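Task 17 of the worksheet. Students: predict the tertiary structure of the chain below and write it out as structure tokens. Keep your answer in the requested format; marks are given for formatting as well as content.
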Amino acid sequence: MNIVVLDGHPANPGDLTWEPLEEYGHLTVYPRTPVDKVVEYAKDAEIVLLNKVNMTKEVIAKLPKLKYIGVLATGYNVIDIRFAHERGIVVSNIPAYSTDSVVQMTFAHILNITNQVGHYAEEVRDQRWSRCKDFSYCDTPLIELSGKIMGIVGLGNIGMHVATAARQFGMDVFALTTKESAALPDGIQKTTLEGLLSISDVLSLHCPLTPDTEKLINAERIKLMKPGSILINTARGQLVDEQAVADALASGHLFGYGTDVMTNEPPAADNPLLQQPHAHITPHIAWASKEARTRLMKIAIDNVHAFVEGRPQNKV
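Model answer:
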């Protein structure tokens, strides 16, 4: 059986191993696959593992040997699922492997914005504190989270853990969720999108990208947000209109934007958010702790094992 990994570098830049996959067939690992090489690299594969390589209908149709696609992530929007199923191809993903790491990154952004950690580290390196006449140097507003309102869009596994952490900081938590109010834990109140926008001091996005959620946060909805509020996005870049967010930061309507994801990755050099000092951007690394990637690799290999054994798991 031929097994091909099309973009293995992000999940395993060299500190982990693909070796267990060799038990199930001949393994070829490509660190990256250009768009025009996908069919060439995968043409003889019965099993393909990928992260962000697009498996469109046109590509899948040119891979007659393909029987299984393993997504090295939770999201699987890069695959034409309907066509894959029509061809009898099993598709699996890796759920919940990065929850703790993503929650940690969510609060890393919140705390960086409210406490201006990155800013003050630079100020100290630039000797501003050394030249200060006082024992304490402060030139920005500092925000305490206790008593503030945390708004969460999406109460899946990650959103629920973010809500729990927010409660530990003393925040009041409101959420936009499909869950019934009676099913929510104490301390989390369900509301509408408009209600959530109007009351949140910090708004954090944890919903999937769908046609209904694309550019969920746009210029009109940003106007509904509290002046001076903070927007956090560790879900998908396309959930926000990046120009609208940049404009809101420039006007001061948004105090800060913390994001680990962009509409296009990597972003173009002229992306408007890159010019905004209150846009705090990390390069899609919330999922990438060694602990999370170790879980990802284990589940990916377990998924292949289950497929080979005729009992596929984590099917999508």
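Marker's comment: The first helix runs from residue 38 to 42. The radius of gyration is 22 Å.
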